[in-house]
Amino acid sequence: MKNEFKQVVVLTGAGVSAESGLSTFRDGGGLWENHRVEEVATPEAYDRDPELVQRFYNTRRKALKTVEPNVAHKTLAKAEKCFESFLLVTQNVDDLHERAGSKKLLHMHGELLKMRCVQCHKIAPIHEDLQLDRICEHCERTGTLRPHIVWFGEMPFYMDDIMRALMQCDLFVSIGTSGSVYPAAGFVEIANQSGAKTVEINLQRSDQNSHFQQSIQGLASQTVHDFFESITQF
Ligand code: OAD
User: Fold this and answer.
1) Cα–Cα distance between 101 and 75 in angstroms, integer?
2) Prediction pTM value
3) What is the pLDDT along the chain (234 residues), one digit of tens a residue?
């Protein structure tokens, strides 16, 4: 049956950008310059060694210039037009979903191409390296700008909107995420409680695999298109 689903929520993780050339967090041992990723992505790490943390995000921001959206990003951009209601929630901080054309998109873990002032809370775009002594153009303080990224121990963005969508959805699809970081890892259980069909698309079974009603293993570039083609009129 075509378009049997009306309210769709899709969650993506690093696996959807892997074939574009961005490394995932946990596949390669989760190390960056010999630091565990969790160690450079906390408020405590930033207090301890802000230069190291800025370098981590500056390096990742620079890498965006070398990559392009892949067929999975493009399929999801196309899919949003095929359902009455559609929300793409990404844990990724890259901009590949929007470059592929996605509009109904929430970055729950923040965005590499934005910075935020910890004093006046103004969010502004950034495409170059963020230096520690940069002046906030809004409040004119120095050294108050940090990456607009959710660090471990901080509350992800848009949780009210995401919860509302999960409680109303009839299809929840999780793509390219290991299911090891909450609250995103718990979305499948909320969708199950809402009576939605829940589908996992991942290279291998994730930590949350047993909670999904359907599981598809394979590369996102191949499986995501096939899945959406099977449920909608592309
Ligand atoms: P992970 O690195 O934990 O998991 C990526 C998943 O993608 C793994 O289960 C891989 O098997 C799968 N994968 C890899 N290549 C794939 C491909 N080509 N096609 C399909 N699947 C593939 O990344 P996330 O789950 O996104 O948080 O990590 C969640 C959060 O942990 C991140 O958002 C980040 C991190 O610490 C913050 O920065 C707050």
Assistant:
1) 10
2) 0.96
3) 457 899 999 999 999 999 999 988 887 777 676 778 878 899 999 999 999 999 999 999 999 999 999 999 999 999 999 999 999 999 999 999 999 999 999 999 999 999 999 999 999 999 999 999 999 999 999 999 999 999 999 999 999 999 999 999 999 999 999 999 999 999 999 999 999 999 999 999 999 999 999 999 999 999 999 999 999 977
Residues near 182 by beta carbon (within 8 Å), at least 6 away in sequence: none
CA triplet 225, 229, 232: central angle to 5 degrees? 135
Centre of ligand 1 to C-alpha 26, Å, is 7
State in Å: Cα 31 to ligand 1 middle: 14
Tell me if 24 CB under 6 Å of ligand 1.
yes
For ligand 1, mutation pick of 12, 19, 25 (most atoms within 8 Å of CB): 25
